[in-house]
Automatic annotation (TrEMBL):
Coiled coil: none annotated. SUPFAM superfamilies: 2-isopropylmalate synthase LeuA, allosteric (dimerisation) domain. It comes from Brassica napus. This is 2-isopropylmalate synthase LeuA allosteric (dimerisation) domain-containing protein. It comes from the Eukaryota. Keywords: Transferase. It holds the Pfam family LeuA_dimer. Residues 2-113 form the 2-isopropylmalate synthase LeuA allosteric (dimerisation) domain. InterPro entries: 2-isopropylmalate_synth_dimer, LeuA_allosteric_dom_sf.
Length: 145
C-alpha cells in the first residue's frame, strides 16, 4: 500500500490485495484524507456495496511510536432475493494509522463476504456467477505496506 498525503490537494492511495487464490489486484483512488482514499481503493477492488457506519481510533501505547488501534463498522447487503442488511465489525492495530485503519476495514469486509457466501449456501441458493475474480473476489486479504 502506498499513500500520498497532501494539505492542499487530495490524498492518493494505491492498494494491492490478494484474493483467496493468491491473485493480486491493485487499485488507486483519491480522497479527502489518506484513510478515505485507501478505503475507496479497497472498494474499487472488492466491488461490494457497503456503508461505513463507524470509524474510531485509539492508541494502545504512548509516544511517537504508539500503536494505533482502529475499529470500523460497515453495513453490507447480502443477495438473498430480498435485501438483507447486516453490520460487520473489524479491528486493526499498527504503528501506522492508515495501515491500522485498512486492516480493520478489510477484516470487516472479509466477515461480510464470508457471511454472504455462507448465507447463500445455507439457504440453498446458488452463488452469483462471477465473471472474473477481479470483479468479485471471494475473500480478500490485506497484503501490507
Amino acid at each position: 500500500m502506498q499513500i500520498i498525503c497532501a494539505t492542499i490537494e487530495f490524498s492518493t492511495a494505491t492498494v494491492t490485495l490478494a484474493d483467496a487464490d493468491g491473485k493480486e489486484h491493485c487499485a488507486c483512488s483519491r480522497g479527502t484524507c489518506p484513510v478515505k482514499s485507501a478505503f475507496k481503493a479497497v472498494d474499487l477492488i472488492v466491488k461490494e456495496p457497503t456503508t461505513l457506519l463507524e470509524y474510531s481510533m485509539d492508541t494502545a501505547t504512548e509516544g511517537t511510536d504508539a500503536i494505533a488501534t482502529t475499529r470500523v463498522l460497515v453495513r453490507g447487503n447480502a443477495l438473498t432475493g430480498e435485501e438483507v442488511q447486516r453490520n460487520f465489525c473489524g479491528t486493526g492495530a499498527r504503528m501506522n494509522v492508515v495501515v491500522s485503519a485498512v486492516e480493520a476495514y478489510m477484516e470487516a469486509l472479509n466477515k461480510m463476504l464470508d457471511f454472504k457466501e455462507k448465507f447463500l449456501l445455507e439457504t440453498s441458493k446458488s452463488l452469483p456467477e462471477r465473471k472474473s475474480l477481479c470483479e468479485r473476489p471471494k475473500l480478500v486479504i490485506f497484503l501490507g505496506i
